[in-house]
Amino acid sequence: MNDTLRFRTESDGNLPLSEGGFGSVHAEVFADGTDVYRRVHGEDRSVYLTGPRLRADRFQNQGAWFVSVYLATAESAVSQSSRSAQRTYLVTGRGTPEQLDGDISNYTATAVVDSDGLVRSLNVSYDRTTNGTTQLVSLAFEYRDVGNTTVTAPSWYPEARTVTGAANESPAFLIY
Asked: Measured between alpha carbons, how far is 161 from 53 in angstroms, rounded to an integer?
């Protein structure tokens, strides 16, 4: 396995449901150096998907993409942060970014950027009104343990290999 292509991510969110409305999900992605496995867990079940290795830069550039979308606001401010021993900067944005469409209100975005320019974390929240219904939308990500980190397989990895047929080297779903 190629250690440079091993990674593990987790995220929580609300996704549109086929029967209407939104549902909470917890998604985890694990790349073992050869294939990528995704586990999406909803209220009552888990779904496993797999596919070939993702482009090596997919997560490397993700922070920059989030910043270009969510911090492109009409109002922004930068200040030095005292949250850690390393020099970091707090970037705050208010006002709806152009790339977001719909009826958006109460928008705020906050990012912590280190002295090397790495976006360590981003937190975004806003209200979106669609067909008279207002829902809180929130997005957060954080990079931790960047550098010399050992990526370990999650507990669900063997089941994902079995369910997707990867354990038997069968073709499976592409996840991106």
From this structure: 14
Asked if pLDDT for residue 1 goes beyond 70, the answer is no
List, as one string, the DSSP characters of the chain.
--GGGEEEEEEEEEEE-TTSSEEEEEEEEEEESSEEEEEEE-SS-EEEEEEEPPPTTTTTTHHHHHHHHHS--SEEEEEEE-SSSS-EEEEEEES--TT--SEEEEEEEEEEEETTS-EEEEEEEEEEEETTEEEEEEEEEE--S-SS------TTHHHHHHHHTGGGT-------
pLDDT, tens only, 92-147? 999 888 888 778 999 999 998 888 888 888 899 999 888 888 888 888 888 777 76
Q: Which two tokens stand for residue 77?
A: 């401010």
User: Cα angle at 109 between 138 and 80, to 5 degrees?
Assistant: 140
Residue 171 has what pLDDT?
Answer: 34
What percentage of the chain has pLDDT greater than the value 70?
71
Pairing of strands 6-16, 22-32: antiparallel
| φ, ψ (nearest 5 deg) of residue 73 | -110, 165
Q: What is the pTM of this model?
A: 0.63
Average pLDDT of every residue of the chain: 76
